[in-house]
Amino acid sequence: MTPDDIFRLFAERGHQSYSGEGITQWQHAWQCGQLARQAGAAPALQLAAWLHDLGHLMTGLEGTPTLRGHDDRHEALAAHALAPVFGPAVAQPVALHVQAKRWLVAARTGYREKLSPDSERSLALQGGPMNDAERAGFQRQPFSDDALRLRAWDDAAKRSGWLPPPDAAATLQHLMRQQGG
Ligand SMILES: [Fe+2]
Ligand SMILES: [Fe+2]
Q: What is d(CA 158, CA 41) in angstroms, rounded to the nearest whole number?
């Protein structure tokens, strides 16, 4: 997976809707990266934020797969593709961003109530809230803190009408170069 492959995926499929949320995959990626930047995240974590849902583009499943009871395992797919190019500081938060939701649902009161309908649907497919052993296991994983931060931006990056500027692709290009891509 080279930076060119990543741009090709966004060019071909970035217009697809971000499952049931009223924005596109490209808008969601940019918003998430932007929120990471505004929060002062390190460049590697900003890039992870940008690319956390690349797996959705790789499977190319249109529409809202969770409505058909389908979990595309997009986090694992993307992390596998990103790890050799950008290393664990990018790939691990991506790999853990779904587990982070399961952790937050179990550990933070009120978090679940704020999930979007699609996120609530996929939660069941992804294993539901973590039990105590799963939570402890998650917290021992490298970059689990980064994954929790990424998850917060992911949840917030669903604003219709907040649109990427013309230089958004250049920002992504720059981050990928910085991380060795
Ligand atoms: Fe995701
Ligand atoms: Fe996402």
A: 19
Residues with C-beta atoms within 5 A of ion ligand 2: 53, 154
Of the listed ligands, the closest to the CA of 25 is: 2
Q: What is the pLDDT of residues 16-42, one digit of tens each?
A: 988 667 899 999 999 999 999 999 999
How much distance in Å is there from the Cα of 166 to the middle of ligand 1?
24
Q: Over pLDDT 70: what percentage of the chain?
A: 94
Radius of gyration, alpha carbons of the chain: 15
Q: Is 39 within 8 Å of 59 (Cβ atoms)?
A: no
* Average pLDDT of the residues in 95-103: 97
Ligand 2 centroid to 154 CA: how many Å?
A: 5
pTM for the whole structure: 0.94
Q: Give residue 84's Cα distance to chain centre.
A: 18
Distance, CA 132 to ligand 1 centroid (Å)?
23
Q: 17 phi and psi, to 5 degrees?
A: -75, 140
